[in-house]
Every structure is written in C-alpha cells, then in structure tokens.
C-alpha cells in the first residue's frame, strides 16, 4: 500500500532500534579479527568473516526497516531531501578517499622519483634512473612490465561509459513510469558492470602471470593495484546497490516521483565512472 | 676520549656550554650566523606578539573592570561595524607580513648548502649515528658515534641509578664529530631504518635523516667549542639516547685530528688476513657487542620478548657460521619481530668477526663452529 | 522494535490525519532502562552518551599523561621502559584527540544543534546512534592494544612511517580503531550537515543561525573532507606492513615523507576541527553574559570559513625539517601566518562584544574569557612556529608541546568546560554550584599554566619531545611541570565529583532560561529539556 506523501509526518524520527548498536559490535568483531588476521593468527580470518557476516545481517535488517518505513509512507519530502544531501556528502568523502591515493601516485611519481635519482642521491643509489614503472632503486623488487591502456582498459572505459548511458535511460524510464523498461536497462547496466569486473579480474591475472606486475612491484605496483583495486571494489559495491534497486523496481517500490534509492545508487555509479576516467588517464595513459 | 667540558671561544664569548644551561629560559646562545638570525627573528616575534597581547588584553581587562553589571554598567546595543572589521583585518594582515618578510632571507640562507668546505654524511641508525667525511680535508674518515653515558647513570625501572650523573648526561658520545672553525660544513643526512633528525641547537641546525633519501643542512661555527644536540625525531625505544656532539677546533687542531684519526683507522682496519686467537676475538667482540648490539639483544643475550630476538640459545648463533655472517652483513626480517635486525656492513671486518665469535662463545651458546676470522668476512662481503 | 515502529506509523497514517502535529513516531515512545541507551535514537540521549564517553576518555588519556609526567619528574628511568614510555605518549595523543576532544564536541552538537535550530531530532537518528556505537569498539581496540604482543603502537599519534611499519599487532589495532573512528566522524558529520541544511525551523535563515551551528557546519565539512584522507594514509601503512606495498619505502621507490604529507593534509585541518566548535561555544557565551548581541556576526561566519579554507594549504608547516625546496618552505610559512588574520578577527569580535556590555562572571563566562586569554597565547606561539627558521630550531621540542596544549587544553577543553556550565542547566534541570564552578575554573587555570608554561622554556633550550629521559639541565622545569600536571588532574577529578555528579543528582532547579542575557531557541523549552522538543517546528521571525 502506498501512502500519499502529504500524510507523512513532518519529519519522521524512528523509534529505538537495535541495529546501530549491533552494527557497532559487528565492527568490533570484524576489526579484532582483521588485526589478528593480518598478523597471521589462526583465528583471525574466521573472526573477521563472522564480523562481516554479522554486519551484513545487521545492514539487511536495518535497510529492511528503512524500506518498510518508506513504503509505509512515513517519509516526507523533507526526508527525501535529507537522503539526497547525505548521499552527496558521502560521495564527497569518497572523492577525498580516492584523492589520497591519486595524491600518492602524483607525489611518488613527480616528486620522490626524480629526487631519488638526483645528484645528491648518487651517494645512496648510484645507478638509479627515474623512469616511471621502475623497480625501485634498491634492487629488492623483481623486474616487471607496466600496464598499458590497450586493449582491456580501453574496452573497460567503453563499458563503463556505456553503463552510464544505460543507467540514464533506465532513470528516464522510471520517471516516465515505465517500470519494465526501467528494469531492463537497469539490468543492462549491472551486466555491463559485471563484464567490467570480469575484464578487470582478467587484467589482474595477466599482470601477475605475464607481466610479473604484482602488488609488491615497488611503488608502481602499489599505486596501480591500490587505485584500480579500490575502484574495482567500488564498482562491486555500486553493482550491489543497483541490484538491490533492481529488486525493488521489480517489487514496485518506486514511483515516478519517489525513487531516491534509485537516484542515490545512480549518483554513486556515475561517481565510480568518473573515478575510472581519472584512472584511465593517470594510471594507464600517462 | 670525549672532552668533559666545553672549551673554546664559544664559552668565553657567549657563556654558553654548547648544550643547554640549567633552567635556561631562552634559545641557546648562537654559534653561527644563522642561529643568531633565528634569535633576532624570535626576539622580534616576541616583541610584536607581546605588544599585541598587551594591547588586546588591556582593552579586554579594561572592559571587564568597567563594563560589568556589578558596577552598574548598562549594555549598549551596537553589534556591527564594517569599518572596524576591515581595520582589524587589514592591520593584522600587514603585521603578519612584517613578521614573515624578515624571515624570508634566513630561510633562503639556511637552504644554501653550496660551496661547502667539508661535507660530512650523518647516517641515523637505531640508535646511533654514523659519520662519513665525504669531501674536503679529512675525506675518507668514517666512524660510528654512540652514547657514552654509562647505563649506571640512567638506571632502569625499579633499579635506581648507581652512578652520579655527569654534566653531559645523555649528551656525550664515544666518537665526536670534529670540524674546523669558520668553515662551511655541509651535513648530508640519511638513515638506515626509520627517520631520525640531526640537531645542534647552537648552530640553528635541525635536519631529518630519512631512510633511502638524502637531505642536507649546513653550519659555519664562528666559535671553537663542543656543541651538543639530540636526535629530534621519534625513532623507537632509544630515541632519547642517541645524542650528537660536534667539536669545533682551529684549523691546525683539525689537521692534527685528521691525521690521528686516519692513523687510528689504518690501525683499526687491521690486516684482514691476520689470523686472530679466539681469546683476542672474544675480548674485542665483547666491546663491539656492548657498543652496538646490547641495546637490542641486551647484555645478557636474552633479547626483549616480542621485540628483539634472543642470541642466547639462538639457532643461528649455534648453527653454521655462514648463516650468522649473512645475518650480520645483510640484516634479517623474518616478521616474527616488529623491529628488524639492521645490516652491519659499516663495521670493520675484524669487528664483525669479533662480535660473531663473542656471541658464539658466550652465555649458553656452544656451536661447533665457534670462531670466525676477519678473512671470512672479507670473503662473504664479495 | 521495527514492527512497533511501523505499527505506530500505520496506526497514525491509517487512523486519522494529524496534519503536521504529532508527526513523530517516537513521540509515542519514551524508552527506559538499558534499551533507552543501547537502542537510542534520541539526539539528547545520544549526546549524553557522547559526553560521558569523551569524559571517560579524557580521564583515561589524562591518566596516561600523568604516567608520562611521573616518569619525567626526574632524569633517569624511574618507572617505565622507554618502549613503554613511547606507547604512553602515543596513546595519550590518540586518546585525547580522537577519544576525548572530538567526541565531546559531537556530544555538544547532538544536544544543542537540534535545540538551537528548532528541529525535532537529528536527520538520521539511527545512523546517529551508529556513529556513537562505533566509538566504544574503537576505544576497546586501542585499550586492548596495550595487551597485544609488543604492546600498543609507539610511533607517536602521528604514526609516522617507517617507524609505524616496525610496530607489532598493536599498530594494526590502532589502525583499525582509527578506521572506525573515522567512519564514525564521517557519518556524524553528514548527519550534522544534513540536519543544519535541511531541518532548520521555518524562518531561520543560515545567517540567523546561532554561531555554534555555523562553526559545526564548517567543522563537519572539514571532517568529511579530511577523515577519508587519513583513512587512505593508514590504509597505505597497513598494506606496507603486511602486503608488501612500497608507499613509504624508498627501496621500492616510495617515500617516507609522503606519509607525512598525506597525514598532515588531514592533520592540520584536524586541529581546526578541534577548535572551531570551541569558537562556536564561546561565541554563544560571551554575548549571553555581556548582555549584548554578538559583535560582527557576519564577519565571524566569514572568518570561520576562511580558517577552514586556509587550513587546507598549510599542512607542511609540520614538516619544515624534512627538507623541502625553499619555495615550499616560504609558501607554507606565508600561508600559515595568514591564518592569524581570521583568527584575530574572531578574538577582536569577542572583545568588541564584551565592550560596553553589562557583564557578569558566572562560571561559563569565566571559562570563556579564560579561553580567549590563554588560547591567544597558544595562537601566538603557533605563529612563532610558523616562521620557518624558528620552527626548524624548536620543531619536535617541548616548545611545540607547549603550543598545542595551550590551544588544545586551554582552547578546546576550556571551551568544552564553558559549554558544560552554560548548558548543563538545560541538560540536567539543575544549576551547578557556582562556588564549585569557580574553584574548578581558577584551579584549572592556575595549574594549567604551571604545567604548560615552563614547557616553552624547555623547548627553547632544546629539550626534544617524546623523550623518556632528558639531560639533567632540564630537571627543575620538568619537576614543576609534573607537579602542575598532577594538580591539573586533581582539578578534573574535582570537576567530576564536586560539579558534574552533584549537578546531575540535584541542586537548585533551573528555570527554562537561567541566563539573563542568553538568546536562542534552546532557552524556550523547559529545563531539563523534555525528551521530545520542537516536534512542531517553531517559527523564527
Ligand atoms: C586546537 C588545535 C590547534 C590550533 C587552533 C592551532 C593553531 C595554530 N597552529 Fe598549531 N598545532 C597543533 C594544534 C593547534 N594549532 C598541534 C596538535 C600541533 C602538533 C602536532 C604534533 O606534531 O603532534 C601543532 C603544531 C603546529 C606547528 C608545527 C610545529 C612543529 O611541529 O614544528 C605549527 C607551525 O607553523 C603550528 C602553527 C599554528 C598556527 C599559526 C596556528 C594559528 O591558527 C593560530 C592563530 C591564532 C592567533 C595568532 C592568536 C589570536 C590572534 C590575534 C589576537 C590577532 C592578532 C595577531 C597577529 C596579527 C599576530 N602549529
Ligand atoms: C587533545 C587534547 C590533549 C589534552 C587534553 C592533553 C592533556 C595533557 N597532556 Fe598532552 N598531548 C596531546 C594532546 C592532549 N594532551 C597530544 C596530541 C600529544 C602528542 C602525542 C605525541 O607526541 O604523539 C600530547 C603529548 C603530551 C606530552 C609530551 C609527551 C612526549 O613528548 O613524550 C606531555 C608531557 O608532559 C603531555 C602532558 C599532558 C598533560 C599533563 C595533560 C593534562 O591536561 C591532563 C590532565 C589530567 C587529567 C584530566 C586526568 C584526571 C584524572 C585523574 C586525576 C584520575 C581520576 C580518575 C578517576 C576519577 C576514575 N601531553
Ligand atoms: Cu633517532 Cu630519535
Ligand atoms: Cu598545523
């Protein structure tokens, strides 16, 4: 049953909820597990995974509540605004997170690397030459080949750009109230994301097996895998969000006027897209 | 042997000792042009800040005294004035410029390390300094400089110090850096493990020593004397125990020092082909161990649980000698300990051979191969 | 619970049309007992949780500080091994910054922002509670790391690489703790921003909003901008430690100094995160006790925003001794010194507010005036540190320690005390004892200066910070500092037992508006503030 949003309270404030506190405990378990896991303790992995599973269960319950409230007509326009603001600021925080890694790449490449090879540093590293993609001055890193933009990253760029288009078509469809059209294009978007991830996995395998390019391949490998890895992780998160949205589209949760969950996920997807464009230029081309 | 007290023109000219004075209120007296510029800047900042402080809080306390309810003051209602806001934006802006401008010249001066007479590399290590004279008179001299304050003056938790603390407590070393007066000395810093910082307050020098990178700083002491500083960047447990001491001497004294130091080094770099007796090696090794290894592995060889490996009973020390030579020359990081075993390449062949022999014949260790000769180190270095 | 919630909603929407009245699910629910706190969605309860949490952390961090001071009372090693001493210093810094000061301001934000803007609660009540419930796990991880093999992290609160790569599992626990505290801060900040932007009572334009809300709006923006950068920095540390990356390792082409750049890109704005809400609190209190409106409201807003913007371009003033090119040194020196201008504007506006007022000096006002006075000393030493050559001389000495305790303890902490005395009547419904408050103020002010003023001398004379033992020339001042520290600690125990607890348990009943000159919506509701306020938003002219 859909409620008319005019009847919704001025600003719905939920009653006491067990989820936040349970989420806190799950995080504690996860982090204790993670600390032990990275130190090779026998129980760390298990505890960490239990914590993550608990966290997912909590989120399931939590979002379930929120969706029920939304479907119950408790969310006024004002709440919708709140969600919009919050999603925008959340994405801003993500931008800054990626900024740290882009900044590291910039700094290591433009500032540290030439430094390591300058006249003064001959004292320490007599024969280091500053080509990006080097194996570091100390000879502790195995040699490797760098990753170029062809063919996979370029295909992936096309895939993600296309997914932005399909998502927009889907959005227009929901605004026009065409639910099945919306669902089809949304599914296409998710599919494009999945193919992207498939290529990404393939690229990693190629890197490890053929190029000897690893996470441990000096600063090049570090920045390459951390940037593309975190991006891939975000694509996965975005795809999961879109899947939940698809599920809700199919259940008929959204109206042409009221579908913020859709839009929030879409913003996120576009953000992930833009990050990719940055990566494509900075990591693969330059 | 370390000079017990500062001698030289610095003390007569400034009254400073080359280190801090008891209960000193201001910066240490300057021994270089840069340090005295820093003094001037600091005095200038202090004056401006004090004047502003007195003016601003003079107004505030006047108001607190006069505009209080208990003396019957009625509240006015004014609450804005663009003119005033502009004034107290622009005036501080100008003051700030007046503070920054004179500093600019000094910043540029401090950075200009060109045309040095002598270049010395200072390498920060957990927890001592290594020095290599790279260029200029004395080129080729190299040594390690360790804290020379006896542990008995420091004490330990629950164990009070048994010895009276000396005047240079924690600011004295076994091997001082020696440089000539009125010469531009360039200090090139680097480190082998973590970041340290090379600092001598009287020179106005403080430069981080960064592992894998080199940075530089310079000074030109206008006075002879002994100058003391400390490692100024947190570098682990013995951070407080790796001081820096520079002795500034006249040109003639410097030349004499260079000659004796070179002779000493030649003597030290004993013929690596000489065959030593086990007792000679053990005696020498004990000294090397106390100076270099005991901070981590402890005098009793037991190490520190979860921090530093024990040598007493260690499989490596009791196994084939090749492995231990390898560890000493290349270091070791198995991941079992948070810290790592540094490489000891910079020690002489004889020292390495001696310290290995010492560890192999001490505590409960009884390996089959219990003696290592310098020649074996020479071979292993190749 | 969730079904109850929904039932209420449906009952309400199905049953009758209330219009905009009683439009709150929780209006029907006044939870009690454990459920009230564990499952809280009420901004006042969550604010209280935050305040208690941060106070406990202040005492814990304070105890660590007292252990530091006990060791440094005399030269030599008396009580602790140096490696443990370094753990104390590190954990003291982390606990105070992330456990005490930041959550305390969030507690104030939770309590006061909805009351000041006429909102019924925070925008996301459940997420609000999640932000809180991430903190105790983080605190447990930090405390637990003392028990890890090798002990807690001892790399300083700045966790500089590569020292931080040498630490044991305690370091990982600290990294993960900081991750979740960061997540907490980001969610808390989103909540605050959304609440302020979206839930102000009709008629309350941004430029009519109380100063405290403005400072928090800007602080929250800073938090969202820089907490993720910290997360990035410590993630790189984690992968360098365990997964073989070379971000901060020159051998693989990385750079230890890069860690410092990333850290301080967070770290410098962080220090303003800890002071801007303090400015906000003081800007509420000074007008109330001067009985005169805040002077230069608009310029206060602009000044706060300028500080925030400038704070992004000054970070390398913490790194002058790492050896940067001369142009960078000059740039960061000039940019840093510029911050004195907007901060000065704030100080001048406060004094202009006091000027020709009709002042009284109850405890909140005492702490606020004390704040201005002592914070400015800390600001001036900051300015002196900004001058590159002087900084190179005193960097990593006790001069810096003196500087930041002047701005953090006499700044942030004193403002928090001021805010407590100002709003406690609203929170508890009781007046605190004015006599006890005054003892707390004067006792704290005096012992604070005994503790931290001599540190300037120590620093100028060259005593490095993070030292477990020191040359004997520094003995006397260190002894004075340690005595002062115990005195200051005692004053805070006094605060707990003679001010906070008695005020909660009883005391003179507080009227809705206990301060003659106070303005703002928070004073239009009864004291103690009822569980639910402004369910129907008030209209502001
Ligand atoms: C609340 C926290 C806070 C605040 C507000 C500040 C404020 C300032 N800080 Fe501070 N700072 C810290 C917390 C803070 N700091 C911490 C924690 C560290 C050490 C971190 C670590 O290494 O562990 C540090 C370290 C630190 C350093 C590095 C020191 C070093 O390690 O070598 C520097 C250097 O520039 C600096 C500068 C400043 C400046 C210029 C200000 C300015 O914002 C101050 C501006 C205020 C005023 C100037 C006073 C009021 C103004 C007037 C009355 C107007 C008239 C004045 C004039 C025209 C001069 N700070
Ligand atoms: C953020 C706020 C903050 C606050 C409030 C404080 C408060 C104090 N700090 Fe510090 N401090 C930092 C932030 C802060 N600090 C930071 C960031 C560092 C740098 C860390 C680093 O180098 O990495 C630092 C470093 C630092 C050092 C340098 C350590 C070193 O370099 O080795 C010292 C030394 O004296 C010190 C002392 C103190 C003292 C005496 C207090 C006092 O104000 C504390 C007062 C004491 C109490 C509040 C305790 C009261 C409790 C009791 C008396 C017990 C009662 C108990 C019950 C009733 C249960 N602090
Ligand atoms: Cu070396 Cu501190
Ligand atoms: Cu700063």
What does this 3D model show about the protein?
The complex is a heterotrimer of chains A (286), B (382) and C (541). Chain A has 286 residues and is mainly α. In chain A, 72% of the residues lie in helices and 0% in strands. Chain A contains 7 helices and no strands. Chain B has helices at 9-14, 33-66, 82-111, 151-154, 251-268, 278-297, 315-318, 321-330, 349-360, 374-381, and strands at residues 118-125, 128-135, 142-145, 177-180, 185-191, 196-200, 205-209, 215-219, 225-229, 244-249. A 5-stranded mixed sheet of chain B has the order 3-2-1-5-8, with no helix packed on it. In chain B, strands 4-10-9 form a 3-stranded mixed sheet. A two-stranded antiparallel sheet of chain B has the order 6-7. In chain B, helix 2 runs antiparallel to helix 3 and helix 9 packs across helix 10 (374-381). The radius of gyration of chain B is 27 Å and the shape is elongated. Chain C is globular and about 65 Å long. Chain C has a single domain (40-523), classed as Up-down Bundle (Cytochrome C Oxidase, Chain A). Chains in contact: A-B, A-C, B-C. Residues 268, 271, 317-318 of chain C line the site of copper (II) ion (CU).
Radius of gyration of chain A: 23 Å
Using a beta-carbon cutoff below 8 angstroms, give the protein chain pair with the largest interface and the number of residues from each chain: B-C, 106 and 102 residues
Residue share in helices of chain B?
Answer: 25-40%
Instruction: Report the β-strand fraction of chain A as a percent range.
Output: under 5%
Helix run count of chain B: 10
What's the average pLDDT of chain B? 90
List of distinct ligands in this structure:
heme-A, dinuclear copper ion, copper (II) ion
Category by helix and strand content of chain A? mainly alpha
Using the CA coordinates, give the radius of gyration of chain B: 27 Å
Keywords (chain A): Membrane, Translocase, Transmembrane, Transmembrane helix
InterPro entries (chain A): Cyt_c/ubiquinol_Oxase_su3, Cyt_c_oxase_su3_dom, Cyt_c_oxidase-like_su3, Cyt_c_oxidase_su3-like_sf, Cyt_c_oxidase_su3_a-hlx
Protein name (chain A): cytochrome-c oxidase
Family (chain A): Belongs to the cytochrome c oxidase subunit 3 family.
């Amino acid at each position: 049953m859909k409620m008319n949003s005019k009847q919704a309270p001025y600003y719905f404030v939920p009653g006491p909820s067990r989820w936040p506190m349970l989420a806190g405990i799950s995080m504690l378990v996860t982090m204790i597990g993670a600390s032990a896991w990275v130190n090779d303790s026998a129980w760390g992995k298990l505890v960490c995974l239990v914590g993550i599973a608990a966290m997912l269960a909590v989120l399931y319950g939590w979002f379930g509540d929120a969706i029920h409230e939304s479907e119950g007509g408790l969310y006024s326009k004002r709440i919708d605004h709140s969600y919009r603001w919050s999603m925008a600021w959340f994405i801003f925080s993500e931008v800054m997170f990626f900024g740290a890694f882009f900044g590291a790449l910039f700094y290591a490449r433009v500032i540290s690397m030439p430094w390591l090879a300058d006249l003064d540093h001959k004292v320490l590293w007599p024969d280091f030459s500053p080509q990006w993609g080097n194996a570091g001055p100390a000879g502790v890193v195995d040699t490797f080949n760098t990753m170029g933009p062809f063919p996979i990253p370029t295909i992936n760029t096309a895939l993600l750009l296309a997914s932005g288009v399909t998502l927009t078509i889907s959005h227009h469809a929901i605004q026009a109230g065409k639910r099945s059209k919306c669902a089809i294009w949304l599914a296409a978007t998710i599919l494009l994301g999945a193919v992207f991830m498939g290529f990404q996995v393939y690229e990693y395998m190629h890197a490890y097996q053929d190029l000897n390019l690893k996470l441990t391949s000096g600063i090049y490998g570090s920045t390459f895998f951390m940037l593309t890895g975190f991006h891939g992780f975000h694509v996965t998160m975005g795809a999961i969000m879109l899947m939940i949205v698809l599920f809700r589209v199919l259940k008929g949760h959204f109206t042409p006027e009221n579908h913020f969950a859709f839009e929030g996920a879409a913003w996120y997807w576009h953000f992930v897209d833009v990050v990719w464009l940055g990566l494509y230029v900075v990591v693969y081309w330059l | 042997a370390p000079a017990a007290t500062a001698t030289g023109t610095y003390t007569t000219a400034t009254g400073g000792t080359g280190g801090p004075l008891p209960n000193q209120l201001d910066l240490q007296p300057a021994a270089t042009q840069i340090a005295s510029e820093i003094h001037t800047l600091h005095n200038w900042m202090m004056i401006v800040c004090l004047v502003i402080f007195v003016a601003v809080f003079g107004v505030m306390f006047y108001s607190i005294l006069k505009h209080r309810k208990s003396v019957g003051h009625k509240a006015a209602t004014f609450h804005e004035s663009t003119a005033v806001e502009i004034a107290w934006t622009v005036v501080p802006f100008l003051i700030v410029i007046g503070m920054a401008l004179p500093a600019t010249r000094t910043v540029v001066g401090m950075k200009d390390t060109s045309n040095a007479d002598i270049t010395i590399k200072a390498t920060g290590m957990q927890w001592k300094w290594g020095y290599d004279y790279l260029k200029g008179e004395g080129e080729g001299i190299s040594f390690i400089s360790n804290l020379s304050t006896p542990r008995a003056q420091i004490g330990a938790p629950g164990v009070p110090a048994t010895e009276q603390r000396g005047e240079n407590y924690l600011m004295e070393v076994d091997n001082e850096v020696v440089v000539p007066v009125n010469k531009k000395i360039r200090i090139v810093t680097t480190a082998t493990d973590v970041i340290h910082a090379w600092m001598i307050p009287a020179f106005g020098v403080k430069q981080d020593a960064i592992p894998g990178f080199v940075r530089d700083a310079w000074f030109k002491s206008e006075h002879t004397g002994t100058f003391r500083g400390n490692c100024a960047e947190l570098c682990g447990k013995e951070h407080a125990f790796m001081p820096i001491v520079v002795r500034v001497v006249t040109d003639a004294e410097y030349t004499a020092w260079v000659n004796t130091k070179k002779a000493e080094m030649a003597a030290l770099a004993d013929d690596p082909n000489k065959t030593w007796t086990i007792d000679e090696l053990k005696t020498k090794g004990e000294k090397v161990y106390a100076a270099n290894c005991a901070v981590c592995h402890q005098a009793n060889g037991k190490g520190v649980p979860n921090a530093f490996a024990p040598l007493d009973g260690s499989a490596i020390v009791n196994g084939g000698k090749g492995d231990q030579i390898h560890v000493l020359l290349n270091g070791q990081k198995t991941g079992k300990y948070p810290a790592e075993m540094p490489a000891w390449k910079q020690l002489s062949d004889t020292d390495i051979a001696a310290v290995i022999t010492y560890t192999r014949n001490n505590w409960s260790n009884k390996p089959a191969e219990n003696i290592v000769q310098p020649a074996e180190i020479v071979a292993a270095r190749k | 619970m969730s079904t109850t919630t929904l039932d209420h909603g449906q009952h309400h929407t199905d049953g009758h049309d209330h219009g905009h009245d009683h439009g709150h699910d929780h209006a029907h629910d006044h939870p009690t007992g454990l459920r009230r706190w564990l499952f809280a969605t009420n901004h006042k309860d969550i604010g209280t949780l935050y305040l208690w949490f941060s106070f406990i952390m202040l005492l814990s961090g304070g105890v660590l500080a007292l252990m530091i001071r006990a060791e440094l009372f005399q030269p030599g090693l008396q009580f602790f091994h140096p490696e443990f001493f370094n753990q104390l210093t590190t954990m003291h810094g982390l606990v105070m910054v992330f456990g005490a000061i930041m959550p305390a301001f969030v507690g104030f934000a939770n309590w006061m922002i909805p009351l000041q803007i006429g909102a019924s609660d925070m925008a996301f009540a459940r997420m609000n509670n999640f932000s809180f419930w991430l903190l105790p796990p983080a605190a447990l991880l930090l405390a637990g790391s003392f028990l890890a093999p090798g002990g807690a992290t001892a790399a300083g609160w700045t966790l500089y690489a590569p020292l931080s790569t040498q630490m044991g599992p305690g370091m990982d626990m600290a990294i993960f703790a900081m991750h979740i505290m960061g997540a907490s801060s980001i969610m808390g900040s989103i909540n605050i921003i959304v609440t302020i932007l979206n839930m102000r009572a009709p008629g309350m334009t941004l430029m009519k909003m109380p100063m405290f809300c403005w400072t928090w709006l800007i602080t929250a923006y800073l938090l969202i901008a820089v907490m993720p950068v910290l997360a990035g920095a410590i993630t790189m540390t984690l992968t360098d430690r365990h997964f073989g990356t070379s971000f901060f390792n020159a051998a693989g082409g990385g750079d230890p100094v890069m860690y410092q750049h990333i850290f301080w890109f967070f770290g410098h704005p962080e220090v303003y995160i800890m002071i801007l809400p303090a400015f906000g609190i003081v800007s509420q209190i000074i007008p109330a006790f001067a009985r005169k409106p805040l002077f230069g409201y608009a310029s206060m807003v602009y000044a706060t925003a300028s500080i925030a913007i400038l704070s992004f371009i000054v970070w390398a003033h913490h790194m002058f001794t790492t050896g940067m090119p001369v142009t960078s040194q000059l740039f960061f020196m000039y940019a840093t010194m510029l911050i004195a201008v907007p901060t000065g504007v704030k100080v001048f506006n406060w004094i202009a507010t006091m000027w020709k007022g009709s002042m009284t000096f109850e405890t909140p006002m005492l702490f606020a005036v004390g704040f201005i006075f002592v914070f400015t000393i800390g600001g001036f030493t900051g300015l002196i540190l900004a001058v590159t050559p002087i900084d190179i001389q005193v960097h990593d000495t006790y001069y810096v320690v003196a500087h930041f305790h002047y701005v953090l303890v006499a700044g942030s902490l004193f403002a928090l005390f001021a805010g407590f005395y100002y709003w406690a009547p609203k929170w508890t419904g009781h007046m605190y004892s004015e006599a006890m408050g005054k003892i707390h103020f004067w006792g704290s002010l005096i012992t604070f200066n005994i503790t931290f003023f001599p540190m300037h001398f120590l620093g100028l004379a060259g005593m490095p910070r993070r030292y477990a033992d020191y040359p004997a020339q520094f003995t006397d001042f260190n002894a004075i500092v340690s005595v002062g520290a115990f005195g200051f600690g005692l004053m805070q125990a006094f605060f707990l037992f003679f001010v906070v607890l008695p005020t909660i348990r009883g005391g003179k009943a507080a009227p809705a508006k206990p301060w003659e000159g106070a303005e703002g919506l928070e004073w239009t509701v009864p004291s103690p503030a009822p569980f639910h306020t402004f369910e129907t938003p008030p209209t502001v002219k």
